[in-house]
Task: inverse folding
């Protein structure tokens, strides 16, 4: 039994595809392991959710390695993100429709850089309504998708440790951000848009690092069978 446990207990760096939920990845890997080792059940979990509209590094733990998940969850995260100015969405990302169009053409690069710099450091952040936070025992995104949008959410204390604009090509801004556990990049982009007075939402997101674990060392999902 120990030899089987050793075989099925792994920590996998996976490149999550766009439009997959983190649980979709967990479910696929669980099915593959059960089939490969003829098991009725196996513990599989992820160490930090990535939204469906985000791609990139997802740490998956299997078997007894699931005990390590909290350690990975506490690590800082690093992302490459793209913001779209001049419109907003209810989900703060591309999952829902754009609305409330506002001009952004008057904003200079200096205006944008100056606004971004105000979001560095320790701060209180309100999570998006479309999130996996539980309220009354139910995930918030389920309530939000039913149109139940009137919730008062508690802010969270987060740290934006590094925030560097990579490219400004209006209406798009590409930037790199390194942040503490619990940070929502969707909320960061929404708040920056509000500060710019034109609105904005998270158009694209890729997680490139979790602590010292890098996306470049990750496995593509379609070749995961070789590593389990």
Result:
């Amino acid at each position: 039994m120990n030899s089987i446990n050793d075989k099925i207990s792994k920590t996998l760096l996976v490149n999550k595809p766009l439009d997959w939920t983190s649980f979709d990845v967990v479910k696929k890997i669980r099915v593959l392991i059960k089939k490969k080792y003829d098991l009725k059940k196996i513990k599989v979990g992820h160490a930090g959710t990535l939204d469906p509209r985000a791609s990139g590094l997802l740490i998956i733990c299997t078997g007894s390695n699931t005990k390590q998940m909290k350690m990975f969850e506490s690590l800082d995260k690093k992302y490459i993100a793209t913001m779209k100015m001049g419109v907003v969405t209810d989900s703060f990302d591309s999952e829902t429709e754009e609305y409330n169009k506002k001009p952004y053409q008057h904003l200079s690069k200096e205006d944008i850089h100056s606004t971004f710099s105000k979001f560095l450091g320790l701060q209180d952040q309100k999570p998006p309504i479309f999130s996996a936070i539980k309220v009354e025992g139910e995930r918030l995104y389920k309530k939000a998708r039913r149109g139940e949008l009137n919730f008062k959410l508690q802010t969270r204390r987060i740290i934006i440790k590094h925030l560097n604009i990579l490219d400004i090509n209006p209406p798009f801004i590409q930037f790199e951000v390194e942040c503490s556990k619990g940070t929502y990049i969707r909320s960061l982009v929404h708040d920056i848009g509000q500060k710019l007075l034109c609105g904005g939402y998270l158009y694209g997101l890729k997680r490139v690092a979790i602590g010292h674990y890098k996306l470049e060392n990750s496995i593509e999902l379609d070749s995961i069978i070789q590593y389990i």
Remarks:
- The first strand starts at residue 11 and ends at 16.
- The chain has a mean pLDDT of 93.
- The chain has six helices and twelve strands.
- The radius of gyration is 19 Å.
